[in-house]
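Tutorial, part two.
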Amino acid sequence: MNLSARMSSGFTMVEIMIAISILAILTALAMPSLVQFMARNELVGTSNALISGINLARNEAVTRSTTVGICPSTDGNSCTGGAWESGFLVFVDDDNNSDFDGGEELIRAESGFTNPAITIDGTAGVDNGITFTADGILTAVGGGGSIDLTHNSTSTGIRITVNAGGQIGSEKI
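Running the prediction step on this input gives:
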């Protein structure tokens, strides 16, 4: 076998080890970005579901010309207050007490958000629920509030705000 045939027959062990080392370095550099990307996507998905529920409550209040509420619920049958990550109820609040009572119409029940890495905390104005009047305005005293979603592994977060006029917004925190 001549020298030129042997030289062109494949890669040497040194070349393979260099290629693997470069691949490992590039993977190590990309991994933090991937973790941040995945955490951000999980937060956005959860916040979009919550914003969708709040928007539904406001739209139904205006459409039906009545009071409609959204509240955190751990069991899907009653308002439990404070545990937004367990799920929520959107309901027609016939007696205007900001609570889902027997006989009131349930518009939507959302089961809990399945990602334990996301913490959801509401401020005093919205921690036990949000109720909209027939005009789409908040009934809560205090002029609204916010719900903070935080991803525990990256400390990134999204704040959902609802002002006294019923407008809903979100921002990075």
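The chain has two helices and eight strands. In part three we will examine how such features are distributed along the chain.
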